[in-house]
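Handout, page 2. Input:
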Amino acid sequence: MSLKGKFALVTGGSRGIGRGIALKLAAEGARVAVHYYRNEKAARDTLDGIRRAGANGIVVQADVTKADEVKGLLDRMETEFGSLDIFVSNARPEAPEFFEAPLKITLEQWNTAFHSQATAFLVGAREAAKLMSDGGRVIAITWAPGGQTGGLQPWVAMGAAKAALETLVRYFAVALAQRGITVNSVSPGWTEDSVLNSLPPAAQTAIRDWHTQGWTPMRRLGTPEDIGNVVALLCREEAGWITGQLIVADGGASLMNSEVPPALQLG
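Output:
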């Protein structure tokens, strides 16, 4: 239990990838604050899982699109824990709140994406650093392809917001380096029990088939547990020399050449 005695906050920790991260940190011995926005039951289910893992934690609520509530969330950490060792910025709004093509997107949808990602990370990481002793860990969950490509048109706001988030990670990594606080981002590939499950059934089937047939060389989608494992590795003391990096955890999907059919690449 390498994280025994540590205090962690996982935003969006009630479901999906956030839940996978929260449960893994708890299994490693950390006490975890599980953040949620609307679904308190899901957050309490995650807390039950944390307790089954032999750890403990709390449930906390906030709207991460509002900077004052993000600050209030970190103030709560000071009240409940007294300090903080790990801050994982994972929460995002539901797709209908930002999912629109660039020629049709509203400023409200655009702002929702940016406030939930770049602004929430700016405020959260800055406030978390005040509670951390030297050697703390700050981790942002991103989706790097969304900020590097333009094919998935309705992802424009979130893609731009995630790109800004990844840039902030690098700036914070330099700002906090002298204190031994590492700041990194993790980019999952397509993952079960995540945004994928909110898509229409036909789209889910198409994506799963595409990846299991070879676009992901490991021929499966990721799981929340996979991403939790990566985050836990970055939180270990032994990972103290890794900072300012974007860690891609996608089973090799990003290694594939988009110009060549998978059948020709895999041999």
